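Worked example

This section walks through a single chain of length 159. The input is the sequence exactly as stored; nothing has been trimmed or padded.
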Amino acid sequence: MTIELSMEARAALGDENTVKVLASVDEKGVPHPAFKNSLRLRTDGFIEYREYIESSATNRNMTRSIWFGILVSIALLTPDKRSFLIRGRVARAIIAGREFRRHYEDVRLCPGDFDLSTVWLIDPEYERENTLAKRKAEEERAHPLLVHVDRLLTAGRGH
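Given that input, the structure is written out below as tokens.
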């Protein structure tokens, strides 16, 4: 693994109530964000993503990402409104074999008529908590002189 995710990001990936978005890019570099509840953290540190539709835009983009080393992004929004950004490289596409069969059988037990195209493994390279209050505090520490003038005027008046 390139990095080990924080406990908070690991918990967010494991929570079925977390909103999970996988963003990939197409051949023209156009971002393609899609809600993907099948994202899970594996015990080996890879992020696993089950793709159910062979011809989906995400599946095509993931294929391009693995061929050309293009990064993908994952955005997470927890039930308590904390947000996380994870970037990673597509490391592996599982389309056959024992592991694929285990996933396929699991998918077939789910309600609905779903197939399984690919089990993608993403190697996380970068993580950041994107919750507004946390990011604002980080940016104010990093750039203390970047303040709106009206805030400086208000602060100077004792308000």
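What to look for: The longest helix spans residues 57-68.
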